[in-house]
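Hello Y.,

Per our agreement to keep a running log of every chain we model this quarter, I'm adding this entry. I've kept the format consistent with earlier entries: sequence first, then predicted structure.
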Amino acid sequence: MSTVRKVPMRKCVGCGEMKNKKEMMRVLKTAEDTIILDTTGRKNGRGAYLCFSGQCLEKAVKNKGLERSLKTAVPQEVYESLKKEFEKFEQS
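Predicted structure for the entry above:
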Protein backbone atom coordinates (compact mmCIF):
# COMPACT_ATOMS: atom_id res chain seq x y z
CA MET A 1 0.00 0.00 0.00
CA SER A 2 1.53 3.32 -1.07
CA THR A 3 1.27 6.46 0.99
CA VAL A 4 0.15 9.70 -0.55
CA ARG A 5 2.38 12.64 0.41
CA LYS A 6 0.66 15.87 1.30
CA VAL A 7 1.69 18.78 -0.93
CA PRO A 8 2.05 22.05 1.04
CA MET A 9 -0.16 24.76 -0.45
CA ARG A 10 0.18 28.51 0.07
CA LYS A 11 -1.98 31.47 -0.90
CA CYS A 12 -0.56 34.29 -3.02
CA VAL A 13 -1.02 37.68 -1.33
CA GLY A 14 -1.38 39.29 -4.76
CA CYS A 15 -3.86 37.24 -6.78
CA GLY A 16 -5.22 35.07 -3.94
CA GLU A 17 -4.68 31.74 -5.74
CA MET A 18 -3.68 28.64 -3.81
CA LYS A 19 -0.58 27.03 -5.33
CA ASN A 20 2.15 24.57 -4.47
CA LYS A 21 4.66 26.11 -2.06
CA LYS A 22 7.56 25.41 -4.45
CA GLU A 23 5.85 27.35 -7.27
CA MET A 24 5.88 30.57 -5.24
CA MET A 25 8.33 33.17 -3.97
CA ARG A 26 8.58 33.87 -0.22
CA VAL A 27 8.93 37.40 1.10
CA LEU A 28 10.27 37.34 4.64
CA LYS A 29 10.23 39.68 7.64
CA THR A 30 13.18 38.83 9.87
CA ALA A 31 13.48 39.33 13.63
CA GLU A 32 15.35 42.58 12.93
CA ASP A 33 12.29 43.89 10.99
CA THR A 34 14.09 43.78 7.64
CA ILE A 35 12.11 42.55 4.66
CA ILE A 36 13.98 40.30 2.23
CA LEU A 37 13.31 37.79 -0.53
CA ASP A 38 13.74 34.21 0.72
CA THR A 39 14.62 32.05 -2.27
CA THR A 40 15.18 28.91 -0.18
CA GLY A 41 11.90 29.13 1.73
CA ARG A 42 13.61 27.98 4.93
CA LYS A 43 14.82 31.12 6.69
CA ASN A 44 13.40 32.07 10.08
CA GLY A 45 10.78 34.79 10.22
CA ARG A 46 7.27 35.68 9.15
CA GLY A 47 6.68 34.92 5.48
CA ALA A 48 4.25 35.90 2.76
CA TYR A 49 4.04 34.16 -0.60
CA LEU A 50 3.81 35.62 -4.11
CA CYS A 51 3.57 34.03 -7.55
CA PHE A 52 6.59 34.39 -9.84
CA SER A 53 4.94 37.26 -11.75
CA GLY A 54 5.33 41.01 -11.51
CA GLN A 55 1.55 41.38 -11.80
CA CYS A 56 1.02 39.63 -8.48
CA LEU A 57 3.57 41.92 -6.84
CA GLU A 58 1.70 44.95 -8.22
CA LYS A 59 -1.60 43.58 -6.88
CA ALA A 60 -0.01 42.94 -3.48
CA VAL A 61 1.23 46.54 -3.38
CA LYS A 62 -2.16 47.88 -4.41
CA ASN A 63 -4.27 45.86 -1.94
CA LYS A 64 -1.60 46.01 0.84
CA GLY A 65 -1.42 42.21 0.93
CA LEU A 66 2.23 42.14 1.98
CA GLU A 67 1.62 44.60 4.80
CA ARG A 68 -1.27 42.52 6.11
CA SER A 69 0.61 39.21 5.89
CA LEU A 70 3.83 40.53 7.41
CA LYS A 71 1.95 42.57 10.03
CA THR A 72 4.10 45.64 9.48
CA ALA A 73 4.29 48.72 7.26
CA VAL A 74 6.40 48.07 4.16
CA PRO A 75 8.51 51.05 3.00
CA GLN A 76 8.51 52.05 -0.68
CA GLU A 77 12.24 51.23 -0.97
CA VAL A 78 11.49 47.60 -0.13
CA TYR A 79 8.87 47.41 -2.89
CA GLU A 80 11.41 48.83 -5.36
CA SER A 81 14.03 46.24 -4.40
CA LEU A 82 11.44 43.45 -4.66
CA LYS A 83 10.50 44.63 -8.15
CA LYS A 84 14.16 44.45 -9.20
CA GLU A 85 14.46 40.93 -7.77
CA PHE A 86 11.30 39.81 -9.56
CA GLU A 87 12.64 41.19 -12.85
CA LYS A 88 15.74 39.02 -12.44
CA PHE A 89 13.59 35.91 -11.93
CA GLU A 90 11.29 36.70 -14.86
CA GLN A 91 14.27 37.09 -17.22
CA SER A 92 15.82 33.75 -16.29
